[in-house]
Amino acid sequence: MLQPITHCNPTLSRREAIASSMIGGMYWSLSHFLSLSARADNQSPKAKSAIVINLGGGPTHVDSFDLKPDAPAEFRGEFNPIDTNVPGIQISEHLPKLAQCADKFAILRGVSHSIAGHELGTAYLSTGNRPVPSLIYPGYGAVVSKELPGSADLPHFVAIPETPQKPGYLGVRYAPLRTNAAPKAGTPFSVRGIALEDEQSIEQFEKRQKLLTQLDTTFEGQAANSKLLDGLDKFDQQTFDMISSPRAREAFDVSLEKSEVAEPFGESKFGMSCLLAMRLISAGVRFTTINFGGWDTHANNFKSCKENLLPQLDAGLSALFNTLATRGLLDSTTIFVTGEFGRTPKINDKAGRDHWPRAMFLLLAGGGIHGGQVIGASDANGMGPAGDIITPDQAAASFYHSLGIDHRKEYHTATGRPVMIVREGSVIPGLFA
User: Fold this and answer.
1) What is the Rg, in whole angstroms, of the alpha carbon atoms belonging to the chain?
2) Quick one: which of 181, 206, 179 has its CA closest to 192?
């Protein structure tokens, strides 16, 4: 689908700059679109790992990354836009730290779909596939774990503290390691399955592992066709590898991080989760997801966003972008920030906003993605796309492209049914540098 471009990075070619500077209702021609699509498809990926941040509940787009200061009062809300460090791009006044690193991420506006329920909307944005009753699609972490296996002594897919993403038809062997809690500032953090309990020694654990191996051998004939047991065997071996590895245990211990590095993340659960994700990626973990809920602001939207949600997002996410960039890891790490939908541009009688999938925002960074730009647009009141839409399917295809994973690749279900990783969608033109 054609995508309106509202701001282009100054490093674009002369031809692209001329095309993107068109105003009013003018959009790229089909030939130009196809040219950019072909170039995006042929570009070599840069990312080796990924972080997906799920803003559970559905964040309000018109109070964060897609403000409408000229809309009527019942739409525009209480917040004002501020300039970022990229000329022409403005975001909410309650995101000042993200405003100062806007050159590091791309904002997708006018992203649109039609699923207004939390569970199904989350399934859509966690997979890039519109949910169907007959099949559970694998989430991003499961696919990345399958396509980009990492070191044996590190978990391949870590959820902080949990995740709505599921392994789906790929099976339990691609399920995440859940931390089940967020770290606390200055406190050693251990995860069940990483740390030894009850002062058990490595030697004692090795003896237990040998016994389990003998039992597996005894019953291996019965388990030959069991995907569940295959997945459990994989978990058992990976648990042993991780417990035996100082690198894995240290990666989870946020108290080992220098204070000058940890301080910008703040002490909120989200900020500390971002700090842990940064440490895991630095250690070599392929995929980490952070679940940051509370965005279902049917009432008191402005108070919740101003005093709690936006400041936490601002501190944690800006620190994540900046620290990865400082360590030279942003180019090799794709960051994808998404909720399940946006919220109604028109304010309700409880000073809140309700579910609104027709318009939402997404953020993408790293992995060769062109930071410092806005792709797509919503209309004057933030009700829907201005022109052609960007779909969750396209965002998923672009996410996988940044990691060198072909979203058109076919997997097979347990019954042999062939299914593409992303059934509908294409790489978003102009997104990649």
Assistant:
1) 22
2) 179
Enumerate domains of the chain plus CATH numbers: 5-185+252-420 (3.40.720.10), 192-245 (no CATH)
Helix boundaries (H) for 10-112: 14-20, 30-42, 73-76, 96-99
**Looking up tokens 């000073």, which residue turns up?**
351
Ranges of beta strands (E only) in 203-332 are 287-291
Closest among 102, 36, 116 to 64, alpha carbons compared:
102
Q: What is the pLDDT of residues 280-334, one digit of tens each?
A: 999 999 999 999 999 999 999 999 999 999 999 999 999 999 999 999 999 999 9
Phi-psi region of 168 (alpha: psi -120 to 50; beta: other; left: phi over 0): left
Backbone φ and ψ for 382, nearest 5 degrees, come out as 75, 25
Mean of the per-residue pLDDT values of the chain: 85
Model confidence at 11, pLDDT cuts 50, 70, 90, reads: very low
pLDDT value for 56: 98
CA distances from 419 to 125, 137, 201, 397, 401 (A): 18, 9, 45, 15, 18
